[in-house]
Amino acid sequence: MHISAQVLKVIITIARCGSFAAAAEELHKVPTALSYTVHKLESELELKLFERLGKQLELTEAGHYFIKKGQMILSELDELQFATQRIASGVETRLNITLNNIISLRPLYTLLAESERHFPHTEIHIAIDVHDGVWDALLDKRADIAIGAPNQVALPGEICCLEMATVEWLFAIAPDHPLTALTRPLRADDLRRYPAICIQDTSVKLEPKVAWQLRGQKAIVAPDYPAKIAMHLNGLGIGFLPSHLCQHFIDDGRLVRLMVEESKQPTPLFLAWQQRSPRPCYSWWLQQLKLPEVQQGFYTTLC
């Protein structure tokens, strides 16, 4: 016998009612029809779902398992129908968002909670990219929305962008680093002797870039900004840091800001997105990410 949703509902009702007569009354069927359904299913499965105690029925151990799994399957079938109907009406199954590694995830936590309430059937996938890897993810359609894409690049017509803010860079190193003994602005020859702490560009199709490294200078490649900052704090190398990430280390003396002859220029950051027909979750996220109070939250600590 094929175990259909209807058969599951019949067996679950019989188990709940405890007799064919009571279940037949609820299902508007005759008791013999329900008895036949149970007998045929038990024969096909070669096991007993119910013990007959006169006119009463009691589940066997196998019957308890069957009912438990059957209820789960019916629930999944109901969810399948509901979710499919919502998707057919335009609700997305997945939204991909990438962030520049120099901005904080903190504003996303509130947005994720709200998104789950509004769009429970849409999976939100969040990635972190470095340098032009943010643009690369968008252009290669690995991301639907990019937050903090640096330095506007040449964009095809299907990509839209909006400037968010500009990041200032500070040359900040450990207070016991040898370079702190120099009282003048630092020249390239001064800096080249010490490793540049870098984070590798995540671009796949665009030409990868190096944020800052002098010709002939050794690099230490860090996996992310928390690691890069920790390396600066431990005097392992030198380089520029976003002001919003390092200023409090400078204020409490754990890092020292030095002047260099060739400073790293400020970096404008953009909110960018794939231009497409309106979709509920996608449109909602874009609307939230354009809010000034949300954008301001990206320029805090990284956690």
TrEMBL record:
SUPFAM superfamilies: Periplasmic binding protein-like II, Winged helix' DNA-binding domain
Keyword line: DNA-binding, Transcription, Transcription regulation
GO molecular function, one term: DNA-binding transcription factor activity
Domain HTH lysR-type: 3-60
Keyword Plastid: no
One matching Pfam family: HTH_1
PROSITE patterns attached to this UniProt entry: HTH_LYSR (PS50931)
Ranges in a coiled coil: none
Keyword DNA-binding on entry: yes
InterPro entries, sorted: LysR_HTH_N, LysR_subst-bd, WH-like_DNA-bd_sf, WH_DNA-bd_sf
Family: Belongs to the LysR transcriptional regulatory family.
Protein name as annotated: HTH-type transcriptional activator AllS
Annotated organism of origin: Phytobacter massiliensis
Gene expressing this chain: allS_3
